[in-house]
Amino acid sequence: MIINQDSLHLKFDIEVKTSEKNDETTINGNKYKYIFKQSDQNFSKLNKKNLIKKIVLEDNFRNNLEKLDLNFYLIIWSKNFLFCTVDHISSFQLLYKITDKKIVIKDNLSELNFVSNQFARKTIINSGYTLGAQTLSNSYKTLMPCEYIIYNNRIKNENK
To answer: What is the reported pTM?
Structure first.
């Protein structure tokens, strides 16, 4: 999902609430926070900062992500930028909510105040699964395998 603020003239506040500790990096003078949760951190030789830089600077981020042979989720954000995605089987769940002014990303279901989505609830009760991106909360959806959200407000230097 690409959030195109150009045609809509929208400016979103970005809120990331996860159980994981974030790291930081600076790219072209802009500070970015990121969380790269992966299944085999102890064995991976992946250079996270290089991956983050490639995703922020290149339009062709899919090639970089398709090469990853591990279970992961990735969130990169700053004041004017957000990129988040999950792996090919959605090993780690990421939830999102987009309102008129804010994008919220979460990884912890236990923090949600459930206003039960009756359709999703019936589906889970009857089959053990939910359909599509729906969750038991009417407010939040989940990223499906290989799905991503990208928002870039195209500010040259966010710190100025």
So the answer is: 0.80
